[in-house]
Specification:
By secondary structure, this protein is of the alpha/beta class. The protein is about 25% helix and about 15% strand. Helix 10 packs parallel to helix 12. It binds alpha-D-glucopyranose and calcium ion. Alpha-D-glucopyranose binds near residues 60, 63, 209, 247 and 333.
Length: about 525
């Protein structure tokens, strides 16, 4: 069972580099996050997830951790982070940190020790073959780089050697089992890191590549799942209020492994892509053609079919609703921003849908104002992802209010367009995307039937009609087309009240007409 506070929680993802710079060095910092907590709260978000903010050489923007227990000096100090926990809690905001359990930086002291020829405590903290001339078939590996005559396995980029949690099926002499003392020691080391931050006020973790721990795992990820269940037992005993969200994209496995939530993200031909991007784009990278026919359901008159999302989602939802939550998201630091494909009117409908669905939704910083994806060169291992990581656009002062430093010193350039959306401009317009997000989230907090636990049933997903779904006693209707339509409500429904509308909605004698590009919640 998931942490109770998640029932009415909406997360805001903060990319610390790019959120708010308070000391004019051009890079966002922890104090900047503290400064903007009231803004986060004003959105209706009552929890944040911060991408890795630990000491790192930043070859993968911080997902290459050099010291799990130290805030990177460019963001501030451990004291600053603890103050963030306190200040957030005072405002009713929870804080998740990012846990990177599958790999470290190649500069982590554990790896430095592990590379030595002489055996030591960390020799088997990573996964090594028996000789630098013996590769690791089926795995990305590196040899010939260190004093130790052995090859080591990578978990992601070259800078990220895989930590050793053992092999589920041992097929080579150099592979250790998951019960090997070295594999058990890695697991305990990760628990120790979790305890370190949880005991200082952190409310839980977003877990990076959560399914990647045990190698040669079976299809059900039995080896990796056993580790997470063990971690969950520790949390239940020591930090029972902590919440864990997996980057796994397989809720049936992740939630059974003890996670509270799993992202609905990398689902080939489904998931996040069918909602926010173009379908041909698997997992959010930029290989899709932005002008392709095959678009997000919310794209006006694109003939999208909600069933492409629902086919996968409903199976997951039915299978997992007693275990935990599926997390839908506007986008994240690894995907193209939804503003790349969808205009403001379309984004409003997409967000209205996301934020009225069961589970625990996530809003990526800047998506609430429709920040654009920028076509810019890679930074810190970002590659195509860099364009979704640019500075938050607060107002029209220098550097769009992100930093008072010199433009040339910024971590990444701000959106140079004259039309770059800003928080300040959208505050003024009651109909802006920003204020629409606020209205939707306020409604979600007000109506228990729109929160994480209330039921969800599809009423009509025929592509020829508006999409209608039931949440508890409420009906939600989305019409992404350019024509007003009658909503195909169930005969017995006969709603009498429109609780919420985007666009034109009229209700007469129980019959609902939903205007072009409109959304309604009725009762
Ligand atoms: C996850 C992160 C991504 C990172 C990778 C390796 O997918 O979200 O940003 O590059 O893991 O840690
Ligand atoms: Ca700074």
């Amino acid at each position: 069972m998931a942490a109770k506070w998640l029932k009415d929680t909406v997360f805001y993802e903060v990319y610390p580099q790019s959120f708010k710079d308070t000391n004019a060095d051009g890079i966002g910092d922890i104090n900047g996050i503290i400064e903007k907590l009231d803004y986060v709260k004003s959105l209706g978000c009552n929890a944040i997830w911060i991408n890795p903010c630990y000491d790192s050489p930043f070859k993968d923007a911080g997902y290459d951790v050099r010291d799990y227990k130290k805030v990177a000096p460019r963001y501030g100090t451990n004291e600053d982070l603890c103050r963030l926990f306190d200040e957030a809690h005072k405002k009713g905001i929870r804080v998740l940190l990012d846990l990177v359990p599958g790999h470290t930086s190649e500069e982590h002291p554990w790896f430095r020790e592990s590379q030595k020829a002489a055996r030591n405590e960390y020799s088997d903290r990573y996964i090594w073959t028996d000789s630098c001339f013996q590769g690791a078939p089926g795995f990305p590996y590196i040899g010939g780089e260190c004093e130790r005559s052995a090859c080591y396995i990578l978990n992601f980029f070259k800078c990220q050697p895989a930590l050793n949690y053992g092999f589920y099926k041992v097929t080579e002499l150099w592979q250790k089992s998951t019960r090997d003392p070295a594999a058990m020691a890695t697991r305990e080391a990760i628990k120790d890191i979790m305890r370190f931050w949880l005991s200082r006020g952190c409310d839980g973790f977003r877990v990076d590549m959560a399914s990647s721990l045990v190698k040669n795992d079976d299809e059900k990820k039995s080896g990796t799942s056993a580790i997470w269940r063990d971690v969950r037992r520790m949390l239940d005993l020591e930090f029972s209020d902590a919440a864990m969200v997996a980057e796994w994209s397989n809720p049936p496995l992740a939630l059974r492994a003890g996670y509270d939530m799993d992202f609905c993200l990398n689902v080939p031909g489904g998931g996040y892509s069918t909602l926010m991007r173009d379908y041909c784009n698997h997992g959010g990278s930029r290989n899709g053609d932005r002008n392709a026919e095959d678009h997000s359901y919310f794209k006006k008159d694109a003939g999208g079919d909600m069933n492409r999302f629902l086919d996968q989602y409903l199976a997951w939802y039915e299978d997992t609703k007693d275990w935990g939550y599926i997390s839908l998201l506007t986008c994240n630091h690894d995907t193209i921003r939804p503003g790349y494909n969808l205009d403001t009117a379309e984004l409003k409908l997409a967000y209205a849908f996301l934020f009225t669905m069961p589970g625990v939704p996530f809003l990526y910083y800047g998506d609430e104002i429709g920040m654009k994806y920028l076509d810019i060169p890679t930074k810190e291992g970002g590659y195509f992802r860099t364009g979704s990581r640019t500075p938050m656009q607060w107002d029209n002062s220098a550097n769009l209010g992100f930093s008072s430093g010199k433009a040339g010193d910024l971590y990444l350039p701000v959106d140079p367009s004259d039309e770059a959306p800003t928080v300040a401009a959208q505050e003024e317009d009651p109909d802006s995307l920003l204020n629409t997000v606020r209205r939707i989230l306020a409604l979600r907090h007000q109506e228990e039937d729109l929160q994480a636990d209330a039921g969800f049933q599809v009423v009509c997903s025929d592509p020829a009609w508006p999409f209608v779904y039931r949440r508890g006693s409420l009906l939600c209707v989305v019409n992404p087309s350019g024509e007003a339509q009658k909503a195909p409500l169930p005969a017995e429904a006969a709603p009498t009240d429109v609780l919420f509308a985007i666009g034109n909605v009229s209700l007469e004698n129980g019959s609902l007409t939903i205007g072009a590009q409109s959304f309604a919640v009725v009762k």
